[in-house]
Amino acid sequence: MIVVWAERSSSSRNPILYPAGKARLEPVGIILCAALMGMAALQLILESVTQLIEGFNNIEHPSALIFDMSTIAMLIGTIVAKIALWILCSRYADKSGTLMTLAVDHRNDVLSNIVAVATAMIAHQWESMWYADPIGAIIMSVYIAVNWFGIGREQIDQLVGRSADQTFIKEIHELAAKHHPLLMPDIIRAYHFGARFLVELEVVLPAEMRVKEAHDIALELQQLIEQLEDVEVNNTN
Question: Distance between CA 194 and CA 159 in Å, rounded?
Answer without folding.
Answer: 6
